[in-house]
Design goal:
- This protein is an alpha+beta fold.
- Helices cover 43% and strands 28% of the residues.
- The protein has two domains: 41 residues; 51 residues, IHF-like DNA-binding proteins (HU Protein, Chain A, Irregular), CATH 4.10.520.
- A hairpin with a 6-residue loop joins strand 3 and strand 4.
- The longest helix has 20 residues.
Length: 95
């Protein structure tokens, strides 16, 4: 499902809302989550999951072209941890 399809589904689920207002809400939601996580904040949506920045330690790797060992520097990456209800719903659907 892409963003346009998601907007359509949410507009159907919430009678009285327009696709335009749903799209504006999704844009604002993703902007706030992205900016907050980039600033080091943790965003928790109970039942859905947690968005946060995770520190990845420095590690050894290999250059795929030359196969020579190299040091991969530490970095910060976005991390999503699904909530209990979200996990249970996905697991139930896969059975």
């Amino acid at each position: 499902m892409n963003k346009a399809e998601l907007v359509d589904v949410i507009a159907i689920e919430l009678p009285g809302t327009t696709k335009k207002s749903v799209n504006q809400f999704l844009n604002a939601l993703t902007k706030v989550i992205s900016e907050s996580v980039a600033e080091g904040e943790k965003i928790t949506i109970v039942g859905f999951g947690t968005f946060e920045a995770a520190q990845v330690k420095e590690r050894n790797g290999r250059n795929p072209k030359t196969n020579e060992p190299m040091l991969i520097p530490s970095s910060v990456k976005p991390k999503f941890t699904p909530g209990k209800e979200f996990k249970e719903k996905v697991l139930a659907a896969s059975k």
